[in-house]
Amino acid sequence: MNEYPRSYASSPPGRDLSNNSLTSLPVGVFLHLSRLRILDLRHNLLSSIANATFLGLANLRTFDLSQQKLRNVTRHSFLGLRTLLNL
């Protein structure tokens, strides 16, 4: 899996997408996941995060983005993550 599937629109409180070789996260892919509280994206191949990629994750509290190849992250990449407690 190289890209986060848009078919994951309805979600349980947590989503584990670790170790999937994800290379990109399309802007808007999380717009309909407002109930998501935990997102695990560790051990993927993400190199950049566009502005507002995580918009829609209004209730996200725990987010694991470790073990990436990130090179490009802006101050607006995490826009909308107001309830985030653990990164």
UniProtKB/TrEMBL annotation:
UniProt entry tagged with the keyword Repressor: no
Keywords of the record: Leucine-rich repeat, Repeat, Signal
Taxonomic source organism: Halocaridina rubra
Record carries keyword Signal: yes
SMART domains, alphabetized: LRR_TYP
Protein name per Swiss-Prot or TrEMBL: Uncharacterized protein
Annotated GO CC locations: extracellular matrix; extracellular space
